[in-house]
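Appendix C reproduces, verbatim, an entry submitted by the partner laboratory led by Prof. M.T., so that reviewers can inspect both the input and the predicted structure.
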Amino acid sequence: MALRRRDTELKHFGVSYLDFKRVQMDRVLTGFLMRLNHKGLASRLVRRNGLSAKEFAGEFTDPANADRFQGFADHPDMARRWVETQLLDMVNRGRPTQAVAGLRPLHGLTYKFRDTYHSRAYGADAQLYEMLRHARGPYGKLALDQLREFFFTGLGTAAESDWKTPVDVETQAVLHLNSQVRGDSPHQAKGWYSAPPLCVGQADLLADDVIRLMSLKDLLPRVTMVEYLKILFAFHLALGQLKTMKLLPVAVARSAADPACGTDRCPAAGAAPDPLAGCPFRVGLLVDVAGVPGTPAAVLAEHSAEYWLRRIPDFLRAAYTIRKLDDFAEHLVGQGKESRPSRGHFTVSELLRFGTDDYRRQRDEFFGARLTAILDDTSVEEQPEEVRPLLDESMGLAPFEKYLELLMAYRGRYHHKYVVDTIDAFLLKNRSGAAIAQPHGGRRRFVLDSALLEVLVQVALLRRNSRGGSSPYTHHTVSLRLDEFLAVLRDRYGLYVDRLPTVDGFGPAGLEEEAALRANTEAFTTRMREIGFYDDLSDAYLTQVITPRFSITEDGTVTTGGR
């Protein structure tokens, strides 16, 4: 069947900036740094010139740069290996087809050295930036400012010449390479605009987490902080996508946004003890903490993952609905029957009204014409078998519904695969920081990897300092009981360890489920002990607390260990 691009186009910025492809977080962060430097826009600087590790290494072994990189010229093989393993982001690493995607995102300027073919963020960089940009109150701007200050360090008036600045060797390397790059400037692609995320509460939560984590930037090695941020960004991108999969079909079905949704109405508050209180679309994921397939807890986590993946078809149909209603709205504007909003584009809430009965006749005419164009280009013999019943008049479908069902029948399976790939990528499947795992040939299940747990612990143990204090840190640390931290994981991130998320695929727990949850909680305690945040000081329940690695008081005093 011949479908034109106008038919197959799915993306609408009001729903998501994502292209739904398998992405790598190094490349997402690289693209985000580009947008961070250009206030949300892309860069005009484009490279597709086959960068090689040998060329990069040559910059540091060149005798002309010996004063900046002492000892590199004396050990060229070691320098090349250091560049390749510590400085470069590679595709197909270790294989004959390996190639340089760019520099690892250890500094804000690394985006200037990306190969635009190999280092593609598929819209995830824009999605991340817009989430932070549209976080409410001062927190979104504050988070972006702190990230900009952290990543673009060493860029003072003499940054490229003053090598006495106390920065790490990776930063020095990037600053040296940056001195040879010119022509970078912001670029706005045709049709691009800034749109808030569907769930602004999730954006608030991301901004608050970033601000909390950035308070540790002077206490953690730069490489560690960058890894923390990558894991945190990936996790919040995943939560944002899951939240969209839950709320968008509901909005489309009722032809209106939920009364609790919207920048002015969302009840979420990122810094509150229960930041998503009052949200009707909270995410609930049952995670297998032990990470061992086949256990009762793992079976529950498999059910949880399967339940969420079954939401994808409804999400895709809703996303197609919004995209096609946008086409319909633009058609009405072109005929002078509607006025374009002053901002230049329609929001999701504005588009939903074009799906109501008030526009039925005009909508049927518009999409009836599109159906006719498709059928005129395709003979009956060429139509997929699953499409033919949809076109039968006896089905009683309106032209718009028939058009959507045709698109889902023809393109739904294609998009489904890539949405799954995107969720896998954001949840870092089978990688450090993973929130989802899948053994070879097995089923997906939600997990709680040690690296992700470590990031969430660091964030949970921080509290904002009052204004006007003398502390150089924006936050101070606290201790939490184990049950309090489990409540934080549930309320803040939707991660369930010791109970079932009854609103997302589970009923009340039976005896077998209770036993599995107890085992899961014991595995959680063991995992907390392994990553060094938890000690059993005694059998007394109130003394079983999680303590920070760096204890920061409200007056700014820092001690190591927190005990």
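The chain is about 45% helix and 5% strand. Additional entries are available on request from the coordinating office.
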